[in-house]
Amino acid sequence: MTDPTARIVRDNFKGRVPLTPAEFASAFLASGAAIENRMDMDSYRNEFVGKPERALAYRQSVTAEHATTARKGSSYTISIPMQTRAVMLRRLQILRGNLATELTVVM
Known about the structure:
The protein is mainly α.
C-alpha cells in the first residue's frame, strides 16, 4: 500500500518500513522475492520465447483438439450441438448419481 494516509506504521517499525512508492519499489527490487521472480521470468524466456518449434507444436495441438464437426474458423473446440449433448449428458449423470436430492429440490 503506497498511500501514506491509509497506512499506520507501528512505533517499533518506524524507520524500517518504506513510506513512499519509490521506497516500496526499491525495497521490492532488493528483496528475495524480486530476485526469484526475475530468475523465473528469465527461465521462461529462455525456454519458450523465440522458439518456432514450440509455436508449431502448440498450433498442431490446437488443431488436434478441434473437433472435425466444428467449423475450421471457430474458436470453440467442439460444435454447439456437441456442447449441448455434453451438458445434457452431464445433467443426466448428476440426476442418476443424486436422485433423492434432485427429487426433493423439484418438489
